Amino acid sequence: MKNLKTILLILLISLIYSCNVKNKETISERQLNEYEKQISILREKYSIPGLSIGISSNDSLIYSKGFGFSDIEKKIKVTPKTPFRIASITKTITGTVLMKLVEDGDINLNWKVKDYYPDYLGSCERILGYFNTDMPEYSFLLNEYQPNRDDITLKHHLSHTAEKIPGNNYKYNGFLFGMLSDVIETATQSKFDTLVDKMIIKKLNLKNSLSSQLDTSKPNIIKSLAKPYIIKSHGTFELGKYPDPQLNAGAGIISSVTDLMLFDNAINQNLLVKENTKKEQFRPFILNNGNLSPYGLGWFTQKYKGYTLVWHNGWQPDAYSGLYLKVLEKNLTLILLANSEGLSEPFELGEGDVLSSEFARSFLDLVINE
Fold it and tell me: Is the pTM for the entire model greater than 0.70?
């Protein structure tokens, strides 16, 4: 009888172990090789001069590689450590910083933006006037925003629901999201760059990252920053212009695939914000009518074949693009950075569906079975 109990215990332990191993087998070497082939095809299709990729499973970097050139003229190849401007992927870091400040009691998401944004009404009026007169193609960023209202909160800006009647509709607006850095600075009496450095870059020892292109503390990163390129006719490339070097809540951070994977691991392990806070960020924002938005608090979020996809893209026209995609139930992450707009511009990702990206869809088709 005693031997039978021992045998049953061994079998139970073996069963538990085999189940755990099975759960961790989220992506095979064959799948990695297949995705590498897909990346090569898609990079050529969308004329991307340089691309860096990383894939992590259960918080371990299982694949990383560079394709093409960070500097075409000098024939400098991209590596997983190559720094890029990460464009709107910055919003995931902003969301993390902001939610940590919420945890610490320094900020409340229900605060009214007007109370913490310097010269709020005057600033909005002047900027919209400038857009209407000199850059009418950008008027859409403010012409449906009503700063005279008394019910626009930080949460509305963080969730892209601040336009017209706050909370009624989702509409991706990087300009309004960017205003959050001014709010953070007013509330904390600290520069946003300093907070990003302290709470993310230095805390995680990110060696290939800077809070902005104005940061001169690591000249080697600026020197090795992937150059931006514009796609010309017949697949040729022309050197583009660097985007605005300043940091705001919506864009400006420099980082690499390897550093973003460290950031990703820290998120997964609740080293930056608590588990409940993270879940709140990843949860779809509930609109006033009860419908779910495709965006949470600093992240896009959606379901696909029973899995939760949490993601963000980056796009700075004629310069840089990126994709950061998490499959939560598999603890699987894909990060792509490029020195052209090819990872984002063709796919209208601001609508909130990552499946419109061929880079994301080909990856998900490999790792998620029906």
Answer: yes
